């Protein structure tokens, strides 16, 4: 059986081998260990304990362990925010306090409108899709922005309403560009603004989403809520909870405007009407011109 070694850019479950003034050393053996700085060491930790850590290399290319959770690990794609731009490349917020992710200038996608909405210069605050990789020459984790070899465009075996993970990137005029992930396979996608109700600035988030349509060009249109009865049934609890919080009455009905409904319930008017119709038939609410009333049993 091969001996397990510490993997840079990944989570590792390691043993506390020894203590030092700067923290504790964790690893698989004294020949394969890494420092966990004192500020990350649990108060109850002792030699022999196992602990899960994330390992990366610091500014001096020394391996270091932390208990922080980065936004992605090596092998994954994420939408990360640009926090600095230098002559050698870009630095992206990786979710670690003391370490940003480096992406070289030559990894910026050109002519790939799925990865970038425009060819305007990248600015601080922009979100970029990157695949995290390990540079084996330096042992540094870097970002790769050219995703063509990692994203599928043909033979897409996804069905309408299938649950996927949406990695949400730049906000465009029509919606949010996404990388869609299902069982380790990535696709290009879009969540249109008319599928989002009451939420702002989804950039950088990773969300459960549902396939609305697989387009002929290989892109996937997404919705954030499941369609059909199951999706409607799941959301009925939102209305009942709002009624509980407001003494059993809300001044919103099927005659209310889409904006009013979105403000109260973060959903479309079409969905709201289906929901209150179901609740009315189940004798959980009454409906009149003034609003909806919870029926006390």
What does the model show?
The strands form 4 sheets. This protein has a 5-stranded antiparallel beta sheet with strand order 3-2-1-4-5, with no helix packed on it. The chain has a 5-stranded antiparallel beta sheet with strand order 8-7-6-9-10, with no helix packed on it. The chain has a 5-stranded mixed β-barrel with strand order 12-13-14-16-15. Helix 1 packs across helix 3. A hairpin with a 5-residue loop joins strand 4 and strand 5. It is built from 3 helices and 19 strands. The protein is mainly beta. Helix content is 13%, strand content 39%.
Uncertain stretches of 5 or more adjacent residues: 112-117
**What is the global morphology?**
globular
Fourth-tier CATH superfamily name of the largest domain: Nucleic acid-binding proteins
- Which strand order spans the largest sheet, edge to edge or round the barrel? 3-2-1-4-5
In the CATH hierarchy, what is the class of the largest domain? Mainly Beta
Task: Estimate the helix proportion, in percent.
Answer: 10-25%
- SSE string, helix = H, strand = E? EEEEEEEEEEEEEEEEHEHHEE
CATH architecture of the largest domain: Beta Barrel
- CATH topology label of the largest domain: OB fold (Dihydrolipoamide Acetyltransferase, E2P)
Strand content: 35-45%
Give me the secondary-structure category. mainly beta
Largest sheet: 5 strands, antiparallel
């Amino acid at each position: 059986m091969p001996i397990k070694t510490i993997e840079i850019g990944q989570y590792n479950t390691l043993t506390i081998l020894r203590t030092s003034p700067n923290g504790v050393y964790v690893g698989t053996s004294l020949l394969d260990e890494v420092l966990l700085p004192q500020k990350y060491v649990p108060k109850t930790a002792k030699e022999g304990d196992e602990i899960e850590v994330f390992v990366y290399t610091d500014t001096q290319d020394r391996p270091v362990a932390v208990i922080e959770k980065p936004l992605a690990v090596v092998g994954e794609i994420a939408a990360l925010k640009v926090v600095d731009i230098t002559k050698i490349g870009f630095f992206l917020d990786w979710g670690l306090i003391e370490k940003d992710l480096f992406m070289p200038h030559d990894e910026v996608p050109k002519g790939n409108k799925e990865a970038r909405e425009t060819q305007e210069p990248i600015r601080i605050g922009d979100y970029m899709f990157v695949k995290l990789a390990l540079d084996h020459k330096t042992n540094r984790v870097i970002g790769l922005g050219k995703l063509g070899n990692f994203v599928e465009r043909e033979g897409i075996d996804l069905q309408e309403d299938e649950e996927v993970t949406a990695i949400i990137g730049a906000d465009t005029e029509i919606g949010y560009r996404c990388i869609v992930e299902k069982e380790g396979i990535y696709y290009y996608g879009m969540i249109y603004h008319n599928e989002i109700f009451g939420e702002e600035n989804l950039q950088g988030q990773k969300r459960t989403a549902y396939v609305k349509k697989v387009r002929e060009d290989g892109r996937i249109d997404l919705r954030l809520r499941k369609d059909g009865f199951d999706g409607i049934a799941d959301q009925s609890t939102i209305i009942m909870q709002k009624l509980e919080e407001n003494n059993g009455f809300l001044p919103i009905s099927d005659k209310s405007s889409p904006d009013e409904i979105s403000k109260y319930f973060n959903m479309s008017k079409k969905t709201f009407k289906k929901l209150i119709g179901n609740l009315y038939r189940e004798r959980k609410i009454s409906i009149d011109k003034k609003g909806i009333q919870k029926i006390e049993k």
